Amino acid sequence: MRTAWSRGILRFVVILLVTLAALIALWPRVAPLYTSAVATVARPAFRAVESPNATVIDVMDDELHVYEIVGQGRITPVVTFEPYVFFAMAPLIALFIATPGLGVRRRFARTIAGAAALYCLHVAYLVVSVELIYATAEGNTLEALQVAVRVAWEVSPILIWIALTAGAWKRLLRTARTDRARKERSQSAGPVGAEG
Amino acid sequence: MTARRWTDWRRILKGGLWARLVVCAAIASLLIAAACSDGLMAGLQGGLARVTGAVLSVLGQAPVVDGNTVATEHFGLTVVTGCTGLFITGLFLVAVIAFPARVFARLIGVGIGIGGIFVLNVVRLVTLYFIGVHLPHLVETAHLLIWQSLLIVLAVLLWLVWVGVWGRSPQRKEATR
Predict the structure, then answer these.
(1) Is residue A151 part of a domain?
(2) C-beta separation of B48 from B79 below 8 A
């Protein structure tokens, strides 16, 4: 017996896989633009948290290179962020597109809101992880904080998606429950007039 | 454990949003502590490497497992913290705890999450090995883009299936009456 829930999940998975395949194919073209967009906001963010400003960011194709200013006109490499670091944007958008029970306008609004939230988190991840590298280099033991940042980076797309689509899933689950209850009630009542 | 303590735990697990948030925060803290523990992570990585090696042996390969590395003469894999699926498992557990359900259903969810994501991870490593052997130019894409997405998709799917089958909360009984 197929319930509204299992139908919804099946539809969700099929759309998700198709959308993901398209976005994975598209990502190599989008990644340089996205990396540049992250760097654009990260530069003033570094200036805001550092006094004096010690970080220089350089985007080469889809890689983001971070350098530390070590003297007059001298910089030293700190870390390189590979393009996959920001790839979670693709599964996040695919999750929004595939979520059942959202109308076009609501889906669009939530996708934009989710993408904006993840973009902000990516900028924050870049700034915080570089600052943690500096702090660790100065001899501070911040392993737990580094792991927490890593956990946040890894799970944030799913958390954002859950937060913005929980209502749609709740509605689908409620519909599935009601359907199931109705079917079970009609089965237990038996066919009307079967026994005369 | 006394009956009263057990009842308290049940109340926490079945309780309101705040109680669930506390349990979720505790799981997150435990995960971070686990990830910081070199011994635990080495054990987890080594275990995953051994299981992957065993599956590859069944599939006709001759892998050598050394610590967290599985290698044959054709290709080698090193299991690092990010490859253990620890964080996605943690998120799954948090999602199971956060969703209203009976204690027994939650225990099933915990089992499905830990077991299911572990199996998915082994499948991921085995497929990456074969991609590395036969299509080495696609390893990076398969590792960092395709499997990263698939793991999210499959973990979400696993959770949705759990919600549909077990995560129905006490309301289910009333709805079906």
Answers:
(1) yes
(2) yes
What domain count does chain A have?
1
Q: Are A83 and A62 in contact (CB under 8 A)?
A: yes
Which residues in chain B are closer than 8 Å to A177, comparing Cβ atoms?
Answer: 168, 171-172, 175
Within a domain: A154: yes
B87-141 pLDDT, tens digit per residue, is 888 889 888 887 878 888 889 999 999 999 999 999 999 999 999 999 999 998 8
| CB hemisphere CA count around B128 (13 angstroms) | 27
Cβ-contact A86, A120 below 8 angstroms: no
Residues 6+ apart with CB under 8 A from B35: A147, A150, A151, B41, B81, B86, B87
Q: In Å, how far are A87, A91, A96, A139, B141 from A25, measured between CA atoms?
A: 12, 12, 18, 42, 10
Number of domains in chain B: 1
Residue A183: inside a domain = no
Helix (H) or strand (E) holding B112: helix B103-134
Cβ(B101)–Cβ(B167) below 8 Å: yes
Dump pLDDT digits (tens) for A156-182: 898 899 889 888 888 888 887 787 778
Q: For the segment A3-62, what is each residue's pLDDT rounded down to a tens digit? A: 778 888 899 999 999 999 999 999 989 999 999 999 999 999 999 988 888 899 999 888
Name the residue with tokens 């991840």: A125
Determine which of B94, B144, B157, B160 to mutate to test the interface with A (most A C-beta atoms within 10 Å).
B160
Domain with A151, as residue range(s), is: 4-41+85-178
Query: Is the ipTM of this structure higher than 0.90?
Result: no
**Chain A residues within an 8 Å CB radius of B172:** 177
What is the pTM (predicted TM-score) of this model?
A: 0.81
B134, amino acid identity: H
**Nearest CB to A13; choose among B141, B157, B163:** B157
